[in-house]
Amino acid sequence: MSEEQIKSLEAEFEARIARDEKIEPKDWMPEKYRQTHIRQISQHAHSEIVGMLPEGNWITRAPSLRRKVALLAKVQDEAGHGLYLYSACETLGISRDELYDQLHSGKAKYSSIFNYPTLTWADIGAIGWLVDGAAIINQVPLCNTSFGPYARAMVRVCKEESFHQRQGYEIMLKLCQGTPEQKEMAQDALNRWWWPSLMMFGPTDDVSVHTAQSMKWKLKRKTNDELRQQFIDQTIPQAEILGITVPDADLKWNEERGHYDFGEINWDEFWQVVKGHGPCNKERMSARVGAWEKGTWVRDAAMAYAEKQENKKLNKAV
Ligand SMILES: [Fe+2]
Ligand SMILES: [Fe+2]
């Protein structure tokens, strides 16, 4: 293809995005668009899969049958989200095996929030309320993103995330209305999860490297700082209903801005966790790789069975 032809394809592509048309897998797209989407969608898929680990840990210890059923359903939803997203990513020309390999070898990233430990039952409440709450704020704009398979997957994912957020908040509410010890447990979970939740929106706008290009492709509709502010403004009144407080001495309503002001985020901690030095990075990866290896016989059996069926069909045809 000549340079001129590529330029005209690029111009047509940008025009389609400007018109809010969806880009589908078989459409022409710039290589950078394809690579950026592979990176973002696979990171998202990996986060759903690794995100099952801190909570899966509590399924056997959930305090009642009702809580167990709700948590089990939530963790299963996250597996489903991971699978939709791997499928969406495969339409861009990368195989599932390559994607798994990138995760297991440590080449691919997943959301750092899942490298923190879940110490008490209240952490399951705090995760649903804050982590799924932050995920919704990040993901709702993606229902309108330009790449068709990603946008369509997000519609269902967001509906399920809102169930996750509510079940988490309800756990917190119950604890906060319970004994002083239970309320203390809820406060302790909020203390530990608040700052990592704010970090989920990524670095501040002045240092975020992908923002400008991603905004152009509508892969991002609002900046990291805007989304973080939205999360804080939405969450503080919910904490007030619970009667617990976020661990930030600088948090204050700013009448003039119409938003909450908040304290400095510890970015050193953020980068340490991103680089693999968080409290549970190693534990999460060894659990994930271990599960993959233990599942080898299931995958082998499924392949052997499929082959057998295929041979049967062929023999009949002859
Ligand atoms: Fe999810
Ligand atoms: Fe979720």
Radius of gyration: 22 Å
Summed over residues and divided by their number, the pLDDT gives a mean of: 95
**Ranges with pLDDT <50 over ≥5 residues?**
none
**Ligand types:** fe (ii) ion
DSSP strand tally: 2
Q: Structural class of the helices, strands and pairings?
A: mainly alpha
Counting DSSP H or I runs of 4 or more residues, the number of helices is 13
Strand content: under 5%
- In percent, how helical is the residue content? 55-70%
Shape by Cα distribution = globular
Question: For the largest beta sheet, what order do the strands appear in spatially?
Answer: 1-2
Secondary-structure element order, as H and E? HHHHHHHHHHEEHHH
Alpha-carbon distance between the termini?
A: 45 Å
Quaternary structure of the protein: single chain
Largest sheet: 2 strands, antiparallel
Short description:
With 318 residues, the chain is mainly α.
